[in-house]
Amino acid sequence: MKQRPLVLQSLLVALFVAYMILPIIATYIFSIATKWDITLMPEGYTLEWYQTAFDHPYFSITLTNSFIVSIAAVLVGLLFIVPTTYWVHTRVPSAKPLLDLLMILPFGIPAVVLALALIRVYAFPPFARSPFLLISACVIFSMPFMYRPVSNSLMAIDVHTLTESALSLGANTLQILLRVIAPNILPGILSGSLLVFATVFAEFTLANLITGASFKTFPILLVEFTRRDGRIAAALSVISFTVAWLASIAILWGSGRGRKPTEEALGAR
Amino acid sequence: MAYLELQNVSKLFGAVAAVKDFNLAVEKGAFVSLLGPSGCGKTTTLRMIAGFEMPDAGALTLDGMDITSVPPNKRGTGMVFQAYALFPNMNVRDNVAFGLEVTGHPKQEIDERVREMLALVRLDDTAKRFPHQLSGGQQQRIALARALAIRPRVLLLDEPLSALDAVVRVALRGEIRRIQLELGITTVYVTHDQEEALSISDRVVVMNQGLIEQTGSPEEIYRQPQTRFVAAFIGTANQLNGVVVDRTQVRFGEILLRAPVPSGLNESSKAVVLVRPESIAIHAAAPTDAHNVLEGTIQTITFLGPITRVGVDVGGTRVVADMAASNRAAFTHTQHVWLSFPPDACQVMANQ
After folding, report:
1. Considering the domain B236-350, what is its CATH architecture?
2. What pLDDT digit, counting tens, does each position of B244-274 carry?
3. Which of A73, B211, B214, B245 shows its CA 20 to 30 Å from the CA of A232?
4. Which tens digit of pLDDT belongs to each residue from B189-248?
5. Ordered DSSP codes for B166-201
6. Which residues of chain B are within 8 Å of residue A269 when distances are taken between CB atoms?
7. Is residue A267 within 8 angstroms of chain B, CB to CB?
8. Nearest chain A Cα to B102, which residue?
């Protein structure tokens, strides 16, 4: 009798994991399959699709472009969203509901509407259909992903008192932000950066409409391949996953390295 | 001119005045406490000294300089908060060093000062620990060391002991006073705990509803409260409402109490006679040679360690009296008793 809920629980978990993992595994297998349509497992295995993808002249260009846009979106987000969130939390808490509401807007406005509106408003150089406009659009689009974790982290610590105690010790706003607030909301900043990076890296609609062929991103290339050969598209998807995971590891590793020296220096003393 | 002065300082929050026309002069090296119930404006006053709140009127001067509009990070005031507010990402050493590092002191000087400060608060061996690895009392001592490390011109403490256990609280308040005397640092201390304020201060400022009720030494505040509020807030004072008969007598119900009536009170004006419980003696039989004898029935007997506090119903008025705990056995609930107190233990005030 006691076992039953446990069995049910395990079954639910297994089903959920399968639901999440199976498509990814299938994509991986498909990317190295010679032919996989009427059989249960592929008829043979090959790395040909990866070769084709790597050899494509646009492969490295689109990958670089996607990196540029994603990293720029993360940096702009860090530069604007984090200080703004901090400022609203400490100085104008009454504006927090308004900011919360603003941060939901990107979810409510379809990417198509956002892209077309931006194209019409910023129809003049140097913005018109430029990577700058794409990056700006991506920042707006991914804003909530940076805002939410940062805002939650700020709520988890006593920002107000920490700020005041740093102030009374003679620190200026920049020192407070960099030395006191940022390290204490680092988990939020990190997960925000990761979410923004991943979202923007996989973003298709905005890139396709704003820059299109003039500044192709990786997802545009991927979509082009799905029309030609699903197996090459699968190989590109796997590369895309890998990039996202590598980026996550790099960010986590980078932040870990940033903190270590102080601890080591202290250990030596 | 005093070292730290607040002149006609007022602060409004919306339409509510948190602090009204506040005047205070603190001499260099003095320990002054702002004491009052929550919402009396004591914390707002402290925050104005720190620069976290801007006064709506009035001026603040520190060491001869007008600091009214100086930002908090340029005032050189060290602040200790109720919630410790240590930086959780830094270890003890970095916390204490923070104020010196952000103002660009050389590393050698910082290291020396950190050692000195940790020795001062007797936590030399905690330099590498993080705040979450310390007890509340230890964290507050580090917060004190951090505030003192910048050699502030004034040390500000905002209910620093309120979050601590009773035992730690008493020990740490002694530590704070020792360190304050050792450094001779001018200190403003905010608390709602009258015992705390009386035990460590040179001067106590009792506040109520944004106004100063009384300023004086702890003894003055305790022995000669100037207002009914102070009398009621500091210690426990019995308040007997009556009518002035002449310069030495006040009628309380049917009884004539002998008490020194101040010159400001006229005959037949309403007055209140204040008597501390420790001045009242309890008798099982009617005393023959005592002044100011009241008759009543025991309602409560409360054991308080060295003393036992007895609550007596005197014709509808509750009067509390203290006695040595050893006399406890002589009395029981609902027993009929007599209370007496000498005239010079009474303080008479107008009853507004």
Report:
1. Beta Barrel (2.40)
2. 998 899 999 888 999 998 888 888 889 999 9
3. A73
4. 999 999 999 999 999 999 999 999 999 999 999 988 888 899 888 888 898 999 999 889
5. HHHHHHHHHHHHHHHHHHT-EEEEEES-HHHHHHH-
6. 93, 127-128
7. yes
8. A171
